[in-house]
Design goal:
By secondary structure, this protein is mainly α. It has helices spanning 2-8, 18-34, 41-57, 70-82, 84-90, and strands at residues 13-16, 65-68.
Amino acid sequence: KQYAALVAAEGATLEFTAEGVREIARVAGKANERMENIGARRLHTVLTALLEEVLFELPDYPTKRIVFDAPQVRERLQKILEDEDLRRYIL
C-alpha cells in the first residue's frame, strides 16, 4: 500500500495480479532460503528492487497504470536472482 500511495502521488496507479503477488512471494521465499532468512522483511527488499526503475522513471513513464504480473516480476528480478554477488548486495 505504501508503494501504491507513492505512485498515486504522481497521478498513476500501481496494481499487482494475483499471479504477480505469488511470484513476488516465491522470489522472497527463495531469497530467504539461499541467504539469511529475514522473513517478511525480505518482501520489502524484493518490492524495492522490483519497483526501483518504475519509481525513478515515473514522471516520464509512458502509462499511468502500472500492472505487474508474474512474467514481469520474473523479468525484472531475474538478473538479481541469478547473480550471487548482486543478490547479496540488493536482496
